[in-house]
Design a protein that fits this description.
The longest helix has 29 residues. With 233 residues, the protein is α/β, with parallel strands linked by helices. The radius of gyration is 18 Å and the shape is globular. It has a seven-stranded parallel sheet, with helices on both faces. It has nine helices and seven strands; from the N terminus they run αβαβαβααββααβαβα. Bound molecules: guanosine-5'-diphosphate (GDP) and magnesium ion. Guanosine-5'-diphosphate binds next to helix 2. Magnesium ion binds next to helix 2.
Length: 233
C-alpha cells in the first residue's frame, strides 16, 4: 500500500515535469525571462513587487501572474501599474492547492501576452514547502524571507532556501523592534545555500529596492539582446 502511494506521487511529479518542459519551451521561444517569486504568506512579495513596478513599469515590458488560493486581492493591487496582470486561483478547478504547478501555469498561458513581455513575474501561493517541489521551469527563483519569521527559517525549510537564486530579506525596518539576529539568519542561510546572493529590503522605507530592480533588469535583458541581434542580422 505504502509503495503504491509513493509511486502515484512520483508519477504526478513526472507528469508535472513534462508540462513544465513545455512551459519552458514557450518562455524561451518568446524570449521572456520568468521569475518565480515565493515566500511564506505575508512576507511581502506583493509589496516588493509593487515597489519594483513603480521603478520598472515604463522601462521594461512586464507581466505578472498572481497565484492565490482565491480572490483577486493581489491582482487588484498590481493592476494600477502599466503591466499585464493575470490572476490564477487554485481554488476553482485545482482543489485549492497551496502552490502553483506547471499545469496551472500552463492553463493561464493563453491569457499572458508572452510575445510582448521581457519579464514575467509569477507570484506563487504563500507557502514555504510545496512551491519548492513543483517545477514550473522558470529561469530564476526569488525567495522573500521576512525578519518577522525567525532566524531558523533556512534550517526549517532547506529545500526552498536551497532552490532559490536570490533571497530578499524583507521588513528590515522592523529590526529595531525585534530580537531577530540578522547575523544568525545569514549564517543559517549560508549553511543551507552557501554564497546565495541576498538583498536586505524594506518595502516600507524603500531600502534595497534599487538593488532588487537591478537584479530584475539583468534578468530581463535577454530578450532585448536577442531582438537587437535580429535587427542587425
Ligand atoms: N513593516 C513592513 N511591513 C511590510 C513590508 N513588506 C510588506 N509589509 C506588510 O506585510 C503585509 C503583507 O505584505 P504582502 O506584500 O501582501 O505579502 P505577501 O503575502 O508575501 O504578498 C502587508 O501588511 C504589508 O504592508 C516591509 O518591508 N516592512
Ligand atoms: Mg501577495
Amino acid at each position: 500500500m505504502h509503495g503504491r502511494i509513493v509511486r502515484i506521487a512520483t508519477d504526478a511529479l513526472d507528469a508535472n515535469d513534462t508540462i513544465a518542459g513545455a512551459n519552458r519551451a514557450d518562455f524561451d521561444e518568446h524570449g521572456t525571462a520568468v521569475v518565480n517569486f515565493m515566500s511564506a504568506p505575508g512576507a511581502g512579495k506583493t509589496s516588493l513587487l509593487e515597489r519594483a513596478l513603480e521603478v520598472l513599469q515604463h522601462e521594461l515590458s512586464i507581466g505578472v501572474l498572481e497565484g492565490d488560493v482565491q480572490g483577486r486581492f493581489d491582482a487588484d493591487r498590481i493592476s494600477r501599474f502599466h503591466v499585464a496582470v493575470t490572476q490564477l486561483d487554485t481554488d476553482p478547478g485545482f482543489g485549492g492547492e497551496c502552490h502553483l504547478d506547471a499545469n496551472m501555469v500552463r492553463s493561464a498561458l493563453s491569457e499572458i501576452p508572452l510575445d510582448g513581455l521581457e519579464l514575467l513575474v509569477i507570484e506563487n501561493v504563500g507557502n514555504l514547502v510545496c512551491p519548492g517541489e513543483f517545477k514550473i521551469r522558470e529561469h530564476a527563483r526569488v525567495l522573500v524571507a521576512s525578519v518577522t519569521e525567525g532566524e531558523d527559517e533556512p534550517l526549517k525549510h532547506p529545500l526552498m532556501f536551497r532552490a532559490c537564486d536570490l533571497v530578499l530579506v524583507n521588513k528590515v525596518d522592523l529590526l529595531t523592534h525585534l530580537d531577530y539576529d540578522l547575523e544568525e539568519f545569514l549564517a543559517n542561510l549560508d549553511e543551507v545555500h552557501p554564497d546565495v546572493p541576498y538583498i536586505l529590503t524594506s518595502a516600507r522605507t524603500g531600502m534595497g529596492i534599487e538593488a532588487w530592480c537591478e537584479w530584475l533588469r539583468a534578468r530581463a535583458g535577454a530578450k532585448r539582446v536577442r531582438e537587437r541581434a535580429r535587427a542587425h542580422a
